[in-house]
Amino acid sequence: MLYSLDTKTDFIFLLLDAIVTLKSSWDSVTESNVVNCFKHVGFVINSETNEAEVIPPSNLREPECENIFDCLRNFFPNAFPETFSQVVEVDEGIPTTSSRSDDDIIASVLPPAIDEPDANQISQEIEVPSLQEALKAGKILQSNSAFDEVHLSNIVSVNDELLSYSLKSQKQCKITDFFKS
Protein backbone atom coordinates (compact mmCIF):
# COMPACT_ATOMS: atom_id res chain seq x y z
CA MET A 1 0.00 0.00 0.00
CA LEU A 2 2.83 2.41 0.83
CA TYR A 3 4.51 1.57 -2.46
CA SER A 4 1.29 2.49 -4.34
CA LEU A 5 1.11 5.81 -2.49
CA ASP A 6 4.75 6.57 -3.32
CA THR A 7 4.38 5.64 -7.00
CA LYS A 8 0.87 7.10 -7.26
CA THR A 9 -0.56 3.89 -8.68
CA ASP A 10 -3.77 2.09 -7.81
CA PHE A 11 -3.58 -0.17 -4.76
CA ILE A 12 -4.95 -3.62 -5.54
CA PHE A 13 -5.65 -5.91 -2.59
CA LEU A 14 -7.34 -9.13 -3.64
CA LEU A 15 -9.33 -11.52 -1.49
CA LEU A 16 -6.44 -13.98 -1.57
CA ASP A 17 -4.13 -11.25 -0.25
CA ALA A 18 -6.57 -10.59 2.59
CA ILE A 19 -6.74 -14.28 3.49
CA VAL A 20 -2.95 -14.67 3.47
CA THR A 21 -2.51 -11.52 5.58
CA LEU A 22 -5.18 -12.65 8.04
CA LYS A 23 -3.61 -16.10 8.41
CA SER A 24 -0.16 -14.58 8.91
CA SER A 25 -1.51 -12.21 11.58
CA TRP A 26 -3.40 -14.98 13.36
CA ASP A 27 -0.32 -17.24 13.31
CA SER A 28 1.72 -14.50 15.01
CA VAL A 29 -0.64 -14.41 18.03
CA THR A 30 0.88 -16.49 20.82
CA GLU A 31 -0.79 -18.16 23.76
CA SER A 32 0.80 -15.63 26.10
CA ASN A 33 -0.82 -12.78 24.08
CA VAL A 34 -4.26 -14.27 24.67
CA VAL A 35 -3.56 -14.92 28.37
CA ASN A 36 -2.34 -11.33 28.85
CA CYS A 37 -5.44 -9.93 27.14
CA PHE A 38 -7.69 -11.91 29.49
CA LYS A 39 -5.64 -10.74 32.50
CA HIS A 40 -5.95 -7.08 31.45
CA VAL A 41 -9.74 -7.24 31.41
CA GLY A 42 -9.94 -9.15 34.69
CA PHE A 43 -10.41 -12.80 33.66
CA VAL A 44 -7.99 -14.93 35.64
CA ILE A 45 -7.76 -18.54 36.76
CA ASN A 46 -7.60 -19.04 40.47
CA SER A 47 -4.51 -21.14 41.16
CA GLU A 48 -6.07 -22.77 44.24
CA THR A 49 -9.41 -23.85 42.75
CA ASN A 50 -8.29 -23.89 39.09
CA GLU A 51 -11.50 -22.05 38.14
CA ALA A 52 -11.96 -18.86 36.14
CA GLU A 53 -12.71 -15.72 38.10
CA VAL A 54 -13.47 -12.17 37.11
CA ILE A 55 -11.41 -9.58 38.93
CA PRO A 56 -12.14 -6.06 37.68
CA PRO A 57 -9.02 -4.07 36.81
CA SER A 58 -7.95 -1.52 39.41
CA ASN A 59 -8.23 1.43 37.02
CA LEU A 60 -11.92 0.70 36.35
CA ARG A 61 -14.24 2.82 38.49
CA GLU A 62 -17.95 2.47 39.09
CA PRO A 63 -20.13 5.01 37.28
CA GLU A 64 -21.44 7.79 39.46
CA CYS A 65 -24.95 7.77 38.05
CA GLU A 66 -28.14 5.84 38.64
CA ASN A 67 -28.96 4.83 35.08
CA ILE A 68 -27.50 4.99 31.59
CA PHE A 69 -29.35 8.21 30.70
CA ASP A 70 -27.83 10.03 33.66
CA CYS A 71 -24.38 8.82 32.59
CA LEU A 72 -24.98 10.00 29.03
CA ARG A 73 -26.26 13.34 30.30
CA ASN A 74 -22.98 13.75 32.25
CA PHE A 75 -20.90 13.12 29.12
CA PHE A 76 -23.14 15.06 26.70
CA PRO A 77 -24.88 17.81 28.67
CA ASN A 78 -26.41 19.58 25.64
CA ALA A 79 -27.75 16.43 24.03
CA PHE A 80 -30.56 15.85 26.55
CA PRO A 81 -32.95 18.75 27.12
CA GLU A 82 -34.44 18.87 30.61
CA THR A 83 -37.76 20.60 29.95
CA PHE A 84 -40.44 20.30 27.31
CA SER A 85 -39.84 23.87 26.13
CA GLN A 86 -36.20 22.96 25.47
CA VAL A 87 -37.39 20.05 23.34
CA VAL A 88 -39.70 22.35 21.34
CA GLU A 89 -37.01 25.01 20.87
CA VAL A 90 -34.16 22.61 20.05
CA ASP A 91 -33.98 23.63 16.39
CA GLU A 92 -34.60 27.36 16.77
CA GLY A 93 -30.97 28.25 16.04
CA ILE A 94 -30.71 26.11 12.91
CA PRO A 95 -30.73 28.17 9.69
CA THR A 96 -33.46 27.10 7.29
CA THR A 97 -34.51 28.04 3.78
CA SER A 98 -37.84 28.94 2.32
CA SER A 99 -39.89 26.18 0.82
CA ARG A 100 -39.03 25.39 -2.76
CA SER A 101 -41.49 24.94 -5.57
CA ASP A 102 -41.54 21.87 -7.78
CA ASP A 103 -40.07 23.89 -10.64
CA ASP A 104 -37.13 24.99 -8.45
CA ILE A 105 -36.43 21.40 -7.44
CA ILE A 106 -36.58 20.15 -11.04
CA ALA A 107 -34.33 22.99 -12.22
CA SER A 108 -31.74 22.13 -9.56
CA VAL A 109 -31.68 18.48 -10.66
CA LEU A 110 -31.59 18.92 -14.44
CA PRO A 111 -28.35 19.90 -16.19
CA PRO A 112 -28.24 23.44 -17.55
CA ALA A 113 -29.96 23.84 -20.89
CA ILE A 114 -27.74 24.19 -23.94
CA ASP A 115 -29.01 26.27 -26.82
CA GLU A 116 -29.19 23.80 -29.68
CA PRO A 117 -28.72 25.24 -33.16
CA ASP A 118 -31.50 24.62 -35.63
CA ALA A 119 -31.10 22.33 -38.66
CA ASN A 120 -30.28 25.21 -41.03
CA GLN A 121 -27.34 26.33 -38.90
CA ILE A 122 -25.97 22.79 -38.70
CA SER A 123 -26.13 22.22 -42.44
CA GLN A 124 -24.39 25.56 -43.04
CA GLU A 125 -21.63 24.93 -40.51
CA ILE A 126 -20.73 21.33 -41.42
CA GLU A 127 -19.04 20.77 -44.73
CA VAL A 128 -19.74 17.26 -45.96
CA PRO A 129 -16.61 15.67 -47.42
CA SER A 130 -16.62 14.20 -50.89
CA LEU A 131 -16.59 10.46 -51.41
CA GLN A 132 -12.92 10.53 -52.38
CA GLU A 133 -12.03 12.55 -49.25
CA ALA A 134 -13.95 10.06 -47.07
CA LEU A 135 -12.15 7.11 -48.69
CA LYS A 136 -8.78 8.82 -48.14
CA ALA A 137 -9.60 9.52 -44.46
CA GLY A 138 -10.74 5.91 -44.03
CA LYS A 139 -7.43 4.61 -45.39
CA ILE A 140 -5.53 6.86 -42.99
CA LEU A 141 -7.61 5.66 -40.04
CA GLN A 142 -7.25 2.04 -41.10
CA SER A 143 -3.45 2.33 -41.30
CA ASN A 144 -3.30 3.75 -37.75
CA SER A 145 -2.34 0.99 -35.30
CA ALA A 146 -3.62 2.84 -32.21
CA PHE A 147 -7.12 1.37 -32.51
CA ASP A 148 -8.23 -1.81 -30.80
CA GLU A 149 -9.79 -4.68 -32.77
CA VAL A 150 -13.40 -3.55 -32.30
CA HIS A 151 -12.80 -0.01 -33.52
CA LEU A 152 -10.56 -1.18 -36.33
CA SER A 153 -13.22 -3.63 -37.57
CA ASN A 154 -15.78 -0.80 -37.50
CA ILE A 155 -13.44 1.42 -39.53
CA VAL A 156 -12.86 -1.40 -42.05
CA SER A 157 -16.60 -2.00 -42.44
CA VAL A 158 -17.23 1.74 -43.00
CA ASN A 159 -14.42 1.80 -45.59
CA ASP A 160 -15.93 -1.23 -47.33
CA GLU A 161 -19.33 0.49 -47.48
CA LEU A 162 -17.77 3.67 -48.88
CA LEU A 163 -15.84 1.70 -51.52
CA SER A 164 -18.95 -0.28 -52.45
CA TYR A 165 -20.93 2.96 -52.85
CA SER A 166 -18.08 4.45 -54.88
CA LEU A 167 -18.06 1.51 -57.27
CA LYS A 168 -21.84 1.54 -57.66
CA SER A 169 -21.93 5.26 -58.47
CA GLN A 170 -19.34 5.05 -61.26
CA LYS A 171 -20.47 4.86 -64.84
CA GLN A 172 -19.44 1.88 -66.88
CA CYS A 173 -16.67 2.79 -69.25
CA LYS A 174 -16.55 1.94 -72.91
CA ILE A 175 -13.55 0.09 -74.31
CA THR A 176 -12.83 3.00 -76.60
CA ASP A 177 -12.37 5.30 -73.58
CA PHE A 178 -9.11 3.50 -72.77
CA PHE A 179 -7.62 4.33 -76.17
CA LYS A 180 -8.19 8.04 -76.01
CA SER A 181 -5.07 9.99 -75.37
Summarize the amount of helix as a percent range: 40-55%
Shape: elongated
User: Which percent range describes the beta-strand content?
Assistant: under 5%
Structure summary, number of beta strands: 2
List segments where confidence is low: pLDDT < 50 over at least 5 consecutive residues.
Answer: none
Rg over CA atoms: 40 Å
The first-to-last residue Cα distance is: 76 Å
Report mean pLDDT, rounded to a whole number: 76
Biggest sheet details: 2 strands, antiparallel
Number of helices: 9
SSE order, as H and E? HHHEEHHHHHH
Structural class: mainly alpha
Please state how the strands of the largest beta sheet are arranged side by side: 1-2
Describe the fold and architecture.
The chain has 181 residues and is mainly alpha-helical. Helix content is 51%, strand content 3%. The protein is built from nine helices and two strands; from the N terminus they run αααββαααααα. The chain has helices spanning 2-7, 15-27, 31-41, 68-75, 84-88, 102-109, 119-125, 131-143, 149-169; strands spanning 43-45, 52-54. Strands 1-2 form a two-stranded antiparallel sheet. β1 and β2 (52-54) form a beta hairpin. α8 (131-143) packs antiparallel against α9. The longest helix has 21 residues, at 149-169. It is elongated. The two termini are 76 Å apart. The relative contact order is 0.03. The model has no long low-confidence stretch (mean pLDDT 76).
Compact summary:
The chain has 181 residues and is mostly helical.
Question: Layout of SSEs?
Answer:
Elements: H1 2-7, H2 15-27, H3 31-41, E1 43-45, E2 52-54, H4 68-75, H5 84-88, H6 102-109, H7 119-125, H8 131-143, H9 149-169
Antiparallel strand pairs: 1-2
Helix pairs in contact: 8-9
